[in-house]
Amino acid sequence: MCLAVPTRVTEVREQTAVCSVHGGETEVEASLLLMDEEVRAGDYVLLHAGFALRRLEEGEARETLALLQEMAGEGS
User: Fold this and answer.
1) If one looks up domain 5-71 in CATH, what number appears?
2) What is the pLDDT of residue 46?
3) Can you name the residues that pair with 9 across neighbouring β-strands?
4) Nearest CA to 44 among 15, 74, 5, 14?
5) In this structure, are residues 19 and 7 in contact, taking their beta carbons and an 8 Å threshold?
6) For residues 62 and 56, is the Cβ–Cβ distance under 8 A?
7) Cα 22–chain centre separation
8) How far apart are CA 8 and CA 71, in angstroms?
9) Alpha-carbon distance values, 12 to 8, 42, 51, 73, 74 (Å)
């Protein structure tokens, strides 16, 4: 099964974005997004297989992350 997860962008570099993932940072391919919309540090994106697929509203991203944590047994 494939799963795309919301991640927060910490920095944008030309065609890539540095994203916060599980307490660390990873550089992801952002060229698919950058053709159609502007992505900035602080934005949330949907990440799958190293690619940022689309920008998310913060509320949607936080809700999805909370659901994923709950499913993983990490909720409060």
Assistant:
1) 2.30.30.140
2) 93
3) 19
4) 5
5) yes
6) no
7) 11
8) 20
9) 11, 10, 13, 32, 30
Amino acid at 15: Q
High-pLDDT (> 90) share of the chain, %? 57
Confidence of residue 44 (pLDDT cuts 50, 70, 90): very high
User: What does the domain layout of the chain look like in residue ranges?
Assistant: 5-71
**DSSP code for 2:** -
State whether residue 42 is helix, strand or coil. coil
The amino acid occupying position 63 is E
N- to C-terminal Cα separation, the chain: 26
- Say whether 62 sits in a helix, a strand or coil: helix
Computed over its alpha carbons, how large is the radius of gyration of the chain?
Answer: 12
Instruction: List residues bridging with 22 in a β-sheet.
Output: none
The structure's pTM equals: 0.83
Q: Write out the two tokens for 33.
A: 């997004």
